[in-house]
Amino acid sequence: MKEFFQHAATTHGVTVRVAVNYLPEQSHPEAGKWFWVYHIRIENASHEPLTFRTRHWRITDGRGMVNHVDGEGVVGEQPTLLPGQSHDYVSGCPLTTPRGSMEGFYTFVRSDGSPAEIRIPFFPLAAPEIAVGRTPR
Prior knowledge:
By secondary structure, the protein is mainly β. 0% of the residues lie in helices and 58% in strands.
């Protein structure tokens, strides 16, 4: 899987980069199931350590239905990022439509205990036309 970061957002000196890929081998369009995997890189270019606490996702399907997902950490981890450090993780998103989108924010805690809300950029989820059941031209 060729991967490069397609979307990025910077908040308080922290950049969140996203690469997203459709996974045909885990999708079943005939059953109304599509699946994407996304790779996130969080880069701390601020001047202070930040500890990851929570995540909030807004996932919208092709019908405009919105699902909010909140949780602690990312894939079971709550890393501390020192200035200049980054953290990568991979996760996935199933939808019952061939199109949708994701966006959200992470909450980190600064060394003084104050929260820092870091934006996750909007990124589309789009299955290739062939996976939607249309004939390619």
